[in-house]
From TrEMBL:
SUPFAM superfamilies membership: lambda repressor-like DNA-binding domains
Record-linked Pfam families: HTH_3
Organism placement in taxonomy: Bacteria, Bacillati, Bacillota, Clostridia, Lachnospirales
Protein name (record): Helix-turn-helix
UniProt KW NAD keyword: no
CDD domains, alphabetized: HTH_XRE
Naturally occurring in which organism (per UniProt): Enterocloster lavalensis
GO molecular function: DNA binding
Keyword Hydrolase: no
Alphabetical UniProt keywords: DNA-binding
InterPro entries the record matches: Cro/C1-type_HTH, Lambda_DNA-bd_dom_sf
């Protein structure tokens, strides 16, 4: 969930109007409206006041933005959650999920992949990573990562993949199986 959506959600949960929040932060109502529309961000000092006054961590408030920055453009979410992948018959306890960049494949093949990173000791080869699922397009993998992030933010202990696709593997590639 983006900062804009998260701010609006938290403001409503606290029973505050945009005007009430603006008054708490000593800014205009238009500034709060702009933030909630995703047209800008508060200054760092205002983010700290916002975090303090609404009793929410900056990590949870800025999760989507932090993930986007740290992943170099790939979607990345952090937290601990048990993820079930029905098409890959996998159940993995992950503290992070990472989506691939677009893969150059055929028309009928998936274009994105999702991986779960398990907590554990990293080796020379990196952190323990498990393949979770294939995705037809960027919209589908973005929905999945967003739903996982939402589950983590809401404290859900587990999540089952909803947007992954089933594939049929061939010698030199794969094809999405349609229902």
């Amino acid at each position: 969930m983006s900062f804009a959506a998260r701010l609006k959600q938290i403001r409503k949960e606290k029973g505050l109007s945009q005007e009430d929040l603006a008054e708490l932060l000593d800014v205009s109502r238009q500034a709060v409206s702009k933030w909630e529309q995703g047209a800008g961000y508060p200054e760092v000092e205002k983010l700290l006041v916002l975090s303090n006054r609404l009793n929410i961590s900056l990590d949870s408030l800025m999760a989507a933005e932090i993930a986007g920055e740290s992943s170099g453009g790939r979607a990345e979410v952090t937290g601990t959650i048990l993820i079930t992948s029905p098409h890959e018959n996998a159940v993995v306890s992950c503290y992070k999920v990472i989506s691939s960049q677009k893969m150059k494949t055929g028309k009928e093949a998936p274009h994105f992949a999702l991986f779960g990173v398990s907590s554990g000791s990293a080796s020379f080869w990196g952190e323990p990573t498990t393949f979770l699922g294939w995705y037809e397009d960027e919209e589908q993998i973005a929905k999945e990562v967003g739903a996982i992030q939402e589950a983590i933010l809401n404290g859900q202990p587990s999540y089952e993949l909803k947007y992954s696709v089933k594939v049929e593997r061939h010698w030199f590639g794969m094809k999405i199986l349609r229902d």
